[in-house]
Every structure is written in structure tokens, then in C-alpha cells.
Amino acid sequence: MKKLHGIIPPMVTPLKGDDTIDVEGTKRLTEHMIAGGVHGLFLLGTTGEAQSLSYKCRYEFVELVCREVAGRVPVIVGITDTSMDESVKLAVHAKNCGAVAVVSAPPYYFAPSQQELIEYYTALADALPLPLYLYNMPSHVKVVFDPKTVAVLAEHPNIVGLKDSSANMTYFQTLLHLLGGREDFALFVGPEELTGECVLMGADGGVNGGANMFPELYVGMYEAAMRRDIEHVRELQRRIMQISTSIYTVGKYGSSYLKGVKCSLSLIGICDDYLSYPYRKFRPEERAKIKRALEELGVACGN
Questions:
Q1: Which pick of 90, 189, 212, 298 has the fewest CB atoms within 10 Å?
Q2: Prior bond to 147 cis, omega within 30?
Q3: CB 192, CB 219: distance < 8 Å
Q4: What is the tens place of the pLDDT at every residue in 65-81?
Q5: How many whole angstroms separate alpha carbon 109 and alpha carbon 32?
């Protein structure tokens, strides 16, 4: 497949209730991001609440978004699971719907060793009908892909890239040192606060949750970094940090970031802010804080 690049938002999963997709909200969100110039969409990642959704809901969401996208941008699908069989089944469904690649973080619960990661991902990549992106997400799965492990797995013809959400710049720089510049392996950064810096240093793009709300901003950051326009990168970075320090920090929740994104999308009229159990949407006083943060960013809001 052609190497992916640019801003590929980790799409939220708009919900109307437990196990009920907000269909119209999903369509509006898809069109909002594509109109904002994003280079692809990533479904069923951390921002998509994948592990809180039933398999039925995951399958419906992939089909709905792929149908709405209709090939205009690449769609990649998260297949992270504790069962390899379920990962492969979802990948088959994704391929049938028109997705171009899949993404997998390590199986969680018992933390696998590096050798076990090599063996697992070799077997998974052999079984998949689509190219595979590795997903380094140590805060949620308790294990880090060692850079040497990534280098070994990058030799597999069906493993084509990695998304790093560690927020560890030394780690990402090591990956760039080992694998940067390869035409057959892409490196993406998750934390949007680091996207400009990482692209300047050779990353292929960002998988940034804020692009659900403000796709033009993150696409602009990618393009400015690619042009080496440092002054514009600094200007956009200030706005990105304003979003990060206001919208993602309301309440004392491990899920404050996700609640903030969904609440913002609700306030700007794109989709419902329902979250799947065990998480709940913001209370009225928390929603008011998000509204104030958006207004300080110059965004018109509803109630």
C-alpha cells in the first residue's frame, strides 16, 4: 500500500446510548473532518472508546464510516484485543467495508515480553488481510515496544508503521533514528502537543484527537512543519496548547481528555456527547467550563 502521511484523527465514536451509534452525528463528524483537510481517519482507537464498545457496535461503526467516506480518504481501523481471533475477524470486516489498514496495540492484562511481542505480531501480521500499524500505548497496556523490537517487526512485509502515544520524545527520536525515512514504514505521533516538533524531525504525521474538533488547525500544523515554517509552527502550537490545557483538563478523571473532546463536539453541534460505560459525560458545571474554554478559542457554542 502507499505510505500514509499527514493528520489522521483518531475519530470519536458518537453514541446515543449504550451500544447505540449516533448515526447522523457520525455522518456530520466524518464530513467535518474531511472538509477540514485531514489525510485519513482512524476508527476504534483510544479516542474511539473501542474497548468499551460491543463487537456489534464496532462492526456497525466501521461499516457506517467507510460508507460515508466512500474512498475519499484512507480509513484505518483499530483491532486491539486480548483475542487474536477477534482481531483478525474485525480486520476481515474492515477490509470488506473498504478500510486500507488496521492498527493494534499489544494485548493487555498480562504484560507480554519483547520476544512474545515479536512472536505475536508476526503471527497476527501473517493472518491479517490488511497491512498492520503497531500502536505504542504504554499508559493503557502496560508494555512498551522496545525500539529494537519495532526494528525487527518492521522487516515483516505486512507491518507498515507505528503510532506512538507514549509522549516520550527520547523514545520517538530513537525510532526516527532506527526507522525514519524508510519508504515502507511510517512513524506517527499521537500527542498533538508534540506533532509539530515530531514532523519537523521526520515523523510522517500525527494521529491527533483535537482534529475531531479543529481539523484545519492540525492539518495547518502538519503543513507548516513540512514547509519548515517555524514561526507559523510556533503560532499554531500556542493554540494547540490552549486546547490541551483547557479542554482536556476539566475534572479529575482518567478520561478527562475524551470527555472534553466529546463535550466540545456536542457544544458545536456535531454529535452527541454520550460515553459508553464505565465513563459518563460531563456534568452541567463541567460542561460550562468546556463552553467557556471554546468561547475563549473564538468558537461559537450551543447549550
A1: 298
A2: no
A3: no
A4: 999 999 999 999 999 99
A5: 36
Cα distances from 3 to residues 95, 103, 126, 184, 204, in angstroms, run 17, 14, 19, 7, 9
Confirm if 247 and 294 have CB atoms less than 8 A apart.
Answer: yes
Distances (CA, A) of 69 to 32, 64, 72, 96, 99: 11, 9, 6, 14, 10
> What domains can you pick out in the chain, each with its CATH number?
6-229 (3.20.20.70)
Q: Is 157 exposed, middle or buried (0-12, 13-18, 19+ CB in 10 A)?
A: exposed
> Which is it for strands 75-78 and 101-104: parallel, antiparallel or unpaired?
parallel
CA-based nearest residue to 25, from 191, 268, 237, 219 = 268
> What is the 8-class DSSP label of residue 127?
H
Q: % helix / strand / coil in the chain, to the nearest 5?
A: 50, 10, 40
Residue pair 165/191 in contact (Cβ under 8 Å)? The answer is: yes
Q: Classify burial at 302, counting beta carbons within 10 Å of its beta carbon; exposed 0-12, middle 13-18, buried 19 or more.
A: exposed
Cα torsion 243, 219, 104, 121 to 10°: value is -130
Which residues pair with residue 136 across a beta bridge?
Answer: 164
Q: How many residues does the chain have?
A: 303
Catalytic residue numbers, as ranges: 135, 163
Residues 218-256 have pLDDT tens digits of 999 999 999 999 999 999 999 999 999 999 999 989 999
CB distance 160 to 131 below 8 Å: yes
As a whole number, mean pLDDT of residues 47-56 equals: 96
For residue 206, the SS3 value is: strand
R_g over Cα of the chain: 18
Q: Which helix (H) or strand (E) holds 163?
A: strand 159-164
Name the residue among 199, 189, 62 with its Cα closest to residue 137. Answer: 189
How far is residue 25's CA from residue 176's CA, in Å, rounded to a whole number? 37
